[in-house]
Amino acid sequence: MNVLVFGGSKSGKSFFAQKIAQSLSKTFPLYYLATMVPHDAEDLLRIQKHLYSRRNMGFITLEYGTNIEQAFAQINPKGTVLLESVTALLTNEMFSVNGDIDYGARDRVIHSTQVLANYMKQGNVVFVCDSLFSDGIDYNFATRYFQSVFAECQRNIASFSDLVLEIFVSKYIIYKGKDSKLIKMLDKSLNNAAPQMNLQSSIHLIIGGAFQGKTEYAIKKFNLQKGDIYECKEDSAIDFSFKCFTHIERYIKYCLSNNIAEENVFPPNSVVICDDIFCGIVPIDSFERRWRERTGEYLQRLSSNAQEVIRVSCGIGTVL
Q1: What is the DSSP secondary structure assignment for residue 302, as one 8-state letter?
Q2: What is the pLDDT of residues 260-270, one digit of tens each?
């Protein structure tokens, strides 16, 4: 079985991919094919976090930043491989240390991921991809070329995958394979691991892109008045006495700028609204990277104990 898992920064996609791989592995070996090549202390810390998160899950870690076919000799074809991530694999194959573009990377990555799936026909592969296409920034040629090739690689993997999921603040959206038995297995696994929620005291979480009508949607759905709404700022803490809180991403930036921990003391049944800032090329600025990651981690915590998570696009809400 082939599974494609994709999502924005700190969406929870790694956790979901790991749980899926575990559910598929049964009695055969479970492999983590790691493609990230560290270039600085930040990369090393990210790798350490991933190692810690899967420390008791039974993975055999194989590190191949390029030429992943070299790993096949170490893999039982009846086992399960979690390849994390296709994004890093293409980055390593395409760009040299000095930034030169290798235009043969496209064919190599498309070929190697297809060959991996063929090699594991008796087993399973879980492919992990980042969502890099929704920030609207006008990038230079190299970045735009990378985006276009990466999208082609992702579409190719989706074409031969049995199950395709997007992970969004620890919720999943199925695009292919909706009747899969794996989804039932995954739901059972996740429900057993999740804490029991107190729905009377939890929040309603609304997320969507900029200018998608999130606040207007909340006003209509929850019968809010303008005086019920608190708009977060980048230079002040939250006043938790309101019923609705917009632009939570600004509050996270305030906390990060002032080196303080985020609070989560929203009133029962309150509405929390956040812009989706997670689906684009990783920012060059280190503060912007940390802000995006901290916001994603905060939303995962809110999502885990929310009455509902609603994604708003074009003013239309979808409960996840």
Answers
A1: H
A2: 999 989 999 99
How is residue 86 written in tokens?
């296709």
CA dihedral (284, 286, 287, 291) in degrees, to 10, reads 80
186-205 pLDDT, tens digit each: 776 665 544 444 444 589 99
CA distance linking residue 117 with residue 292, whole number of Å? 32
Beta-bridge partner residues of 84? 34, 128
Q: List the Cα angle 67/72/75 in 5-degree steps.
A: 140
Task: Please say if the pLDDT value at position 213 is more than 90.
Answer: yes
| Distance (Å, whole) CA 307 – CA 206 | 11
- The candidate with the shortest Cα–Cα distance to 2, out of 216, 176, 203, is 176
Report how many helices (DSSP H) and strands (DSSP E) the chain contains, helices first.
9, 13
Q: Give the mean pLDDT of the chain.
A: 90
- Residue 301, Ramachandran bin (φ over 0: left; ψ between -120 and 50: alpha; else beta): alpha
Burial of residue 208 (number of CB atoms within 10 Å: 0-12, 13-18, 19+): buried
Q: What is the pLDDT of residues 25-37, one digit of tens each?
A: 888 999 999 999 8
Q: Are 276 and 167 in contact (CB under 8 A)?
A: no
